[in-house]
Design a protein that fits this description.
By secondary structure, the protein is an alpha+beta fold. It has helices spanning about 215-220, 295-325, 330-340, 365-370, 375-390, 425-435, 450-465, and strands spanning about 35, 40-45, 55-60, 85-95, 100-110, 115-125, 130-140, 140-145, 145-150, 160-165, 170-180, 185-195, 200, 205-215, 225-235, 245, 260-270, 275-280, 390-395, 410-415, 440-445.
Length: about 475
């Protein structure tokens, strides 16, 4: 998802005392689900990326100043502006059994250094396992395979080695390379992900999905990336009319593939805040693949987040409309008086309308149900609803004060104190007019603020009841 740090990225604290490092983040490798519709489209329903994020830190070895026993220079002497990417290429090969064979090739340009250690962190919360981890370097037209060793034996004094361990639910990969200053290196990180392919056999149409963030905004916050690519290779050729590509609307699958099996996304000149991802939904390419254990919970969580965002957008639009209505209320009142009293009689069609709400649920309770919180908007909605039902009347008063200091208020009059009301509505009426108030009791909205503040907790509790 653009602009969003991939879920599950583990922020590793820099162990400054042990080894000064310069923080350079890689992208999160990322696969996950799109929302599905009956047409197989990638709907914007919030099933966003699921992280098996890779966090790369390129470490700086401080030069010894003066004597052999002199302490290392502080990390502040190293600047993240000294790091940039010439290329950042990611390839995800979906194998016949549903596993992902992942290859990340990063050509990194280093400035002042020297730099000579790095590590990657591969969270396991969106995978069943991550195995077959390998580190190599492309150097002088050859591939130099780094030697795997135990974490306890890894030392920056021995270059071209790496170690793999499990640290707090993550696969931690650490490696060393020859001291580097004002030069570039091309690292290749390879690993196999089991349980990363989403599968929806019960959907219409059935589909499987890969969602991959090749470059996150955390990377571009550290340094620019000149060129990047993401390639997803499927086990078999798929019909393009059954493929959905994302992100973006009306994206043509044929623009991303030449053979219906290998799909490629490209990006150039990524700067601070930019991210780069690719998404693909295809008919099942791995037969008999069950959804991974984490998929249902993640889909549910993302759907809930999207629903909350949608409800918030609707409420914001409603309050904007209410504000506009109140701001032009005087003019609308004059227009209404002319429309009813001042113009010539005219008979015509009468617009249909709904005389009752589509549900018996009160607006205040409905608002609490929507956002799972009883707030001031729900109380205001209850006041308006009481006016609609004739329990109270609401009258706008003429502005008070000078021309430039006028204030607007509303007069509330109790009409039918014995009308059927819910507990929180009775509490609200008592707050406005006082306990046992009789018909024709009057108050002004501005005078009720102090009483509101005192009884808000009680009204909110009754809204939840």
């Amino acid at each position: 998802m653009p602009g969003e740090r991939p879920a599950g990225v583990r922020r590793r604290e820099v162990r400054r005392a042990a080894r000064p490092v310069e923080r350079v983040r890689s992208n999160g490798l990322n696969q996950g689900s799109f929302a599905r519709s009956s047409r197989g489209r990638l709907a914007a329903r919030g099933h966003g990326p699921v992280a098996i994020a890779v966090l790369l830190l390129v470490a700086a070895l401080a030069l010894m100043a003066g004597s052999v026993g002199a302490p290392a220079a502080p990390v502040a002497a190293q600047s993240t502006s000294e790091v940039s990417w010439d290329r950042f290429d990611v390839t995800v090969v979906v194998q016949d059994d549903g596993r992902f064979a992942v290859t990340e090739r990063q050509v990194i340009q280093f400035g002042d250094g020297p730099f000579q250690t790095a590590f990657a962190e591969l969270p396991l919360d969106r995978a069943e396992s991550i195995e077959d981890v390998r580190i190599s370097e492309e150097r002088g037209g050859e591939t130099v395979a780094y030697e795997r060793t135990a974490s306890s034996r890894l030392s920056r004094n021995q270059a071209e080695r790496y170690a793999v361990s499990v640290d707090g639910g993550n696969v931690l990969v650490e490696w060393t390379y020859p001291p580097t200053s004002d030069d570039s290196r091309s690292f290749v990180l390879e690993y196999t992900v089991t349980g990363g392919l989403r599968s929806y056999p019960e959907e219409d149409p059935p589909n499987q999905q890969v969602w991959w963030v090749a470059v996150s905004d955390e990377v571009t916050a550290v340094g620019p990336i000149r060129e990047s690519s993401l390639t997803v290779v499927l086990p078999d050729v798929v019909p393009l009319d059954q493929v959905v590509i994302g992100p973006g609307e009306s994206v043509t699958p044929a623009d991303f593939t030449e053979d219906g099996q290998t799909f490629t996304w490209t990006a150039r000149d990524l700067g601070p805040g930019d991210s780069f991802e690719g998404r693909i939904q295809v008919p099942p390419v791995v037969a008999g693949l069950d959804p991974p254990a984490w998929q249902a919970a993640d889909d549910g969580r993302r759907a809930s987040e999207a629903d909350r965002e949608a409800r918030g957008a609707v409420l914001n639009l409603g309050f904007l409309a209410l504000g506009l209505f109140l701001s032009v209320g005087g003019g609308l009142g004059l227009f209404g008086w002319w429309y009813v009293r001042g113009r010539d009689p005219h008979s015509g069609l009468v617009a249909d309308y709904l005389p009752e709400p589509p549900s018996s649920l009160s607006p205040g309770a409905a608002g609490t149900l929507l956002d799972e919180e009883a707030d001031e908007e729900d109380i205001v909605a209850t006041v308006v609803d009481l006016g609609h039902r004739g329990v109270i009347s609401i009258t706008e008063e003429a502005p008070k004060g000078s021309v430039f200091g006028a204030s607007r208020d509303f007069r509330l009059t109790l009409r039918t104190p014995d009308a059927p009301m819910r507990p929180f509505e009775r509490t609200l009426v008592a707050t406005l007019f006082g306990d046992g108030a009789a018909a024709s009791a009057v108050t002004e909205m501005s005078n009720a603020k102090a009483s509101f503040d005192a009884t808000k907790p009680e009204i909110r509790a009754e809204l939840y009841a």
